[in-house]
Design brief:
The chain is α/β, with parallel strands linked by helices. The protein has one domain (10-241): Rossmann fold. It contains 7 helices and 7 strands, in the order βαβαβαβαβαβααβ. The protein has helices at residues 19-30, 44-53, 68-82, 105-133, 154-174, 199-207, 217-227; strands at 10-14, 34-39, 58-62, 87-90, 136-141, 179-186, 239-242. It has a 7-stranded parallel sheet with strand order 3-2-1-4-5-6-7, sandwiched between helices. Strand 5, helix 5 and strand 6 (179-186) form a beta-alpha-beta unit. The radius of gyration is 17 Å and the shape is globular. Bound molecules: NADP nicotinamide-adenine-dinucleotide phosphate. NADP nicotinamide-adenine-dinucleotide phosphate binds next to helix 1.
Amino acid sequence: MTTTTDERPVAVVSGGSRGLGFALVKDLLDRGYRVATFSRSESDGLAALRKSAGDATLTWCALDGSDPAAVQEFARDVVRAHRRIDVLVNNAGVGLEGLLTLTAPAAVENALHTNLTLPVLLTRACLKPMLARRHGVVVNISSINALRGQTGVAVYSAAKSALDGFTRSLAKEVGPAGVRVVSVAPGYFESEMTSGMSGDQLRRVVRRTPLARLGTVEDVLGLVGFLISPAAGFITGQIIAVDGGYTC
Ligand code: NAP
């Protein structure tokens, strides 16, 4: 990354290689942001996007979010290169499904770390330039599993609920300094994370959804786009579901 006098806003997105994260990267580029993202591996789609966007506009780093020092270093590099961070989307996450008694402790640790510790540490590392400029929005990608209990996802639910607690308290802490913090809680949408769900499971979700369909990545993009816009300038500390009414 090179130092720049570019005045375009800067967004950091964790987990930009595929799924919602990749869609967020593309959407933020379309909105005129420079974007910095990371994941453990790069997808062909992201590699092609980087090639067409160029290094000054889109950077990707191979990084395992379980390494706190690497997360800190990533954020430091972004700030060194761009001198600002306007938006942080804590998107990287990992699903974990299974009865608790049958879940290995290492899987519990990994789910808690990726879904909770990583966003907390990444936010900590990205906040300084936001506070210094009295401007910024942190969007935490939560889940309807944080809002409603469900068999087989206790650890995932615990991590996402804790992330929502982080949203509420941090919003109070940094609101006076001009930084907003929100959670977006999507219902089920198609991605690698939900590719293991059976047809029966997906049909059950649709039956319980007033708008009678699964979510899409576009549904989530629309909400995130609104929340980072000036139109949402008086919204902070809220957990906003985009779930077709599943949790209403
Ligand atoms: P996905 O397709 O599995 O993508 C997850 C992204 O996170 C990938 O880019 C992955 O890249 C990255 N990632 C995972 N672990 C990482 C780690 N340890 N270090 C760095 N990067 C890591 O997931 P998705 O469905 O798009 O989900 C995105 C977010 O939405 C997650 O927070 C998820 O909990 C939430 N959500 C999803 C749904 C749904 O129905 N899909 C519903 C509600 C909420 P690498 O594997 O290459 O590292």
